[in-house]
Amino acid sequence: MTTPTISRNVRGRAGVEPLETDASLIYFSSASDNTHRFVSKLPVRSARIPLLTSEDTLRAVSPFVLVLPTYGGTSGKGAVPRQVIKFLNVEGNRRLLRGVIGAGNTNFGDTYCLAADIIAAKCNVPVLYRFELMGTSEDVDRVTQGLEEFWT
């Protein structure tokens, strides 16, 4: 398992300093930790978007791929987690986003990995891969190879 490179920004506001990361993979995982389990199997440096929206969000300082689950079940309402919206509301984070990998549940039909599709369309980046729940070993291999090719 790889650990993220995270440092404190010395220009925080009112004593609250946003976290900065140069990880090439940034992800959000809910309390279920399905996405976290998947990302922890990848041989890349990663950083996790905080679970609580009341916490400061990450600040990316280099290009990255975003991995996120889809919320909302079959309705698709609220598909993009609020924590990811907060993260992408930081202009610098949006500017450094290069691609999206979606996690989802095929039981939800047309809304499977909908959050990845929404982010890709809004930020004009590609959806690089989709996987179900915490992924399979084949998913891990494909994403590992795909990220190597993507970054070269």
TrEMBL record:
One Pfam short name: Flavodoxin_NdrI
Entry's Gene Ontology molecular function annotations: FMN binding
Organism domain of life: Bacteria
InterPro entries found in the cross-reference section: Flavoprotein-like_sf (IPR029039), RNR_Ib_NrdI_bac (IPR020852), RNR_NrdI (IPR004465)
HAMAP family for the chain: NrdI
Known function: Probably involved in ribonucleotide reductase function.
Family statement: Belongs to the NrdI family.
PANTHER family: PROTEIN NRDI
Protein name per the record: Protein NrdI
Species annotation: Arthrobacter subterraneus
Record gene name: nrdI
